[in-house]
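ok, trying the design again with the full structure, not the truncated one.
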């Protein structure tokens, strides 16, 4: 039997991880983070599919079309976090448990970064733990899915 599937989504500029400021984002590339998250998902008996786009509409299309056999979502929406009500609506409409992850500490940077319009669609938001945040996101979803009827 196939194990349940989690979907990991990254928004704009996160394809450039590894080149972006390591002080905020760490040293790992997006592929490294996807591998780490896939490994953690596997340890928790989940499969992981991944998607990244720099385009708001493409992220929304993915949420609408690629979640039918998904049991939970991990998303780093990048800068869309701070102003995309369209992405918030699309996340909410999946009716799935979602964990939002930020590599950097969005509460100790420019003041506009401390606002997340997508957070209310999520069961938890993690920030400032660099790549470790993705490991914790899988564990939070695994625990949520085990304990929520
Ligand atoms: C980010 C934080 C956002 O403010 C920023 O626009 C990003 C990455 C993070 O992972 O810390 O692109 O989501």
């Amino acid at each position: 039997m196939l194990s349940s599937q989690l979907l990991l989504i990254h928004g704009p500029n996160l394809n450039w991880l590894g080149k972006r400021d390591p002080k905020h984002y760490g040293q790992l590339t997006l592929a490294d983070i996807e591998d780490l998250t896939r490994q953690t998902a596997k340890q928790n008996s989940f499969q992981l599919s991944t998607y990244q786009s720099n385009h708001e509409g493409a992220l929304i299309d993915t949420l609408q079309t690629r979640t039918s056999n998904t049991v939970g979502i991990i998303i780093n929406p990048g800068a869309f976090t701070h102003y995309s009500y369209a992405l918030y609506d699309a996340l909410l409409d999946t009716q799935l448990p979602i964990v939002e992850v930020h590599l950097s500490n969005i509460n100790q940077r420019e003041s506009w970064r401390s606002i997340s319009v997508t957070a209310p669609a999520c069961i938890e938001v993690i920030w400032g733990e660099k790549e470790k945040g993705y490991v914790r996101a899988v564990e939070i979803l695994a625990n949520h899915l085990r304990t929520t009827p």
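Keeping the full-length input from now on. The helical segments are 22-25, 30-43, 56-65, 85-94, 132-147.
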